[in-house]
Amino acid sequence: MVDFFESLSEILFLDIETASGYESIDEVPERVREEWLKKEELLSKTDADYEPGSQYFERAGIYAEFGQVISVGVGYILLDRENELLTLRTKVFSAPSERELLEDFKALLEKKNWTLCAHNGKEFDFPYLSRRMLINGVSLPEPLQMAGKKPWEIRHLDTLELWKFGDYKHYTRLELLASIFDIPSSKDDLDGSQVNHTYHIEKDMEKINKYCLRDVEVTARVYLAMNPQPQPFTLEVIAIEE
C-alpha cells in the first residue's frame, strides 16, 4: 500500500487566475470579436435589454478562447516525519506576456512526474491551461496531455470531484469547503469576480498573485482534510520568491 504522506510529494497543487484577453471589446481583433458577440448573444438570450459587447469585460476571462492566464500558483508538500511536519512550498508564475508565463510553468511540469490537483481543475484549470498553451504555440507538457490515454493514466486530482462522491449534479465552492473544514479563507482582500478589474483597471498583479497563492494553500489544506490520517502532521507554508 502506498503511504499517504509519501505520495503527497508527487502532487502539485495549483490554481490559475484569468482575465479577459483585452480591456475593451473594441480592442478585440475583428474575427474574434464577431465570435464573442455570437457567444454573448446565446449567453444573454433571456435578457431582452442586453447591449452587444456589454458582457465582454465581466465574462470573457472565463473562456480560454477569449481570455488569458495571468497568474499560476503552485505548491508541493515536503515531509518531515521526525518532527511530524509537512511543509507546503508555494510559488507563483507571472510574466509580462502570457506565453512567457506558460513556458515557465511548462518547465516546472517537465521536471517531475507530477500529479496535478486543483479545485474544479478538471472542468476549468487543466483544460484552460492546455487551450491557452496551444493558442500561444506552446506544446503541452506530459501532465496535461490526455489524448490516447486511459482514464487511470491521467494524473489529475480534483477536490471538487472528490467531494462530489459521484453526485454529478452537485457543485461546491472551494470557499464553502474551507468554511466547513475551518480553513482560513483566501477571499480576505479579493475574490474571483474582482480579478478582471484588478488586472485591467487597477493593474495590481501583486494583489492577484497573493490571492492565487492563498487559493493554492486552501486547496492543499482541503485535500489534507479530505484524507484524515491517524498520525496528525502540522502544515507550514513557505513561499518561494525566486
UniProtKB/TrEMBL annotation:
<protein>
    <submittedName>
        <fullName>3'-5' exonuclease</fullName>
        <ecNumber>3.1.-.-</ecNumber>
    </submittedName>
</protein>
<dbReference type="InterPro" id="IPR036397">
    <property type="entry name" value="RNaseH_sf"/>
</dbReference>
<keyword id="KW-0378">Hydrolase</keyword>
<keyword id="KW-0540">Nuclease</keyword>
<dbReference type="InterPro" id="IPR012337">
    <property type="entry name" value="RNaseH-like_sf"/>
</dbReference>
<dbReference type="InterPro" id="IPR019288">
    <property type="entry name" value="3'-5'_exonuclease_PolB-like"/>
</dbReference>
<dbReference type="GO" id="GO:0004527">
    <property type="term" value="F:exonuclease activity"/>
</dbReference>
<dbReference type="Pfam" id="PF10108">
    <property type="entry name" value="DNA_pol_B_exo2"/>
</dbReference>
<keyword id="KW-0269">Exonuclease</keyword>
<feature type="domain" description="Predicted 3'-5' exonuclease PolB-like">
    <location>
        <begin position="84"/>
        <end position="227"/>
    </location>
</feature>
